[in-house]
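Checklist before submission:
- one chain only
- standard amino acids only
- sequence pasted in full

Submission:
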Amino acid sequence: MKDPEEINQIILSNLQYGFIIVQNKKIIYINDKTTDITGYSSEELLQKEVNHIIKHYSVFNSSDLSNLQNQIKNVDFGKKTKFIQQITNKEGQLCWLWVSIKKVLLYEEPAFFISFADITELKETENILKQKIKVIETKYQVISELVVNFEYAYQVRENNQLESLWVEGSFEQLTEYTQSELKQKGGWEALIHPHDISTAFQQLNQLLAGKSATVEYRILTKNGQIRWMRDYAYPVYEKNNNGVDKIIGAVQDITILKTLEQEAIKVKKMESLSVFAGGIAHDFNNLLSKILTGINIMQFELMDNDNVAPILEDIEKAVHLAHNLTQELKTIARGEKLKKSVINISDKIKEITQLTVNRTNVGVKYQLADNLAKVEVDENQICQVIQNLMINAIHANQNSKIILVKAFGTTLNQENQYHLLPGQYLQVSIIDEGEGIKEENKHRVFDPYYTTKKEGSGLGLAICYSVIHEHNGYIGYNSLYKGTEFFFLLPTVK
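Returned file contents:
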């Protein structure tokens, strides 16, 4: 029978983890696995002082050594401490170890039993998984923030009635409704814009038929604001159920996207008109000049003919109207470089608005901020914008006697609703008290040749859009409780 000490030696030598005994600050025992893990032989480690190994072998860096010393310092007799330790093996490779240290009495003197397992592969796998998780979390965060604003789930009840199960995300922030408030108003249908309710029901019917559906529709927020939504919805079947049991979906706010699309369409329309206008305006103006010259000669020759004179006068007026139209076309054509100068627009606002309402029964009320910043603009074109907006307000006002004109400075940050460069801007607003703009007309407000007036070319607002766009500004409108506010922004100069 073998000696018990010999048996212990065999067991220690065949352990699948490293084992070291340290006593009196010297290594007095190592097993074979210690050499496999560290790369150092028994001759290099046995009977060597720990400080000697630390000094002459590049096993620990400063932080790793500090970690090991702190762990050993806190070990009590008869108890174990376990921790993860990084070392550098003889080949210069970093290794991660799972370390267990126990302080014991060996031959009546304190000693440390140190066992350790190489977990480098596990640690590398952990790091890879952490990186993958971080990538997944980042992707999810990007998708959640940039693509989906909120998610929802509905239970399909009898007669295809929907019962809300849950809503997650920025639903309340987006709609300004709480779940209970929306339920009191009649549920999800109360959110949908009246003109888009049929689109929403088409989506629902498709889902109840077992098909996924993606649609775009408008909603009305609690304060009446219109926002565009893109709704991705999917039917869910339960076991032993022939019909759709649940509907889950995710909704994306695409209001900004729709706004940019509409702006792009406007720009394309204006560019198309610009090509047309630039091509014919000059030649048409020359023809009108010849016609007007001919009319003036006829008026001189037939000045005593009472029958012909009124006819020639009407023709002359028509030619002048046509001439004005060509001037508008030339403005849109933007064939000439802007003749910019720095002006104080406050005086021009009063001058142009007063001239426009002259000989009408409409008055003007001003709310102009003091010390308005100056703007660098083509003075004639900006004056034409103010005049066109005033004419538009006069026609809209009908029986009302007052048009409100406002001007003030404003600061736009990096992410502003007008998609302009950040900085200081001047805003001019012209507010009427008419009937407002009908919903079906709102997307065509700045379209060339579109007008709701019995008389007019339909170019007034189109010209305003073209001019402000050329000045790197923004023009828009707000439908008010009573009337409409048209406004434009221009970058200011110091």
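Reviewer check: The chain has four domains: 4-123, 148-253, 259-333, 340-493.
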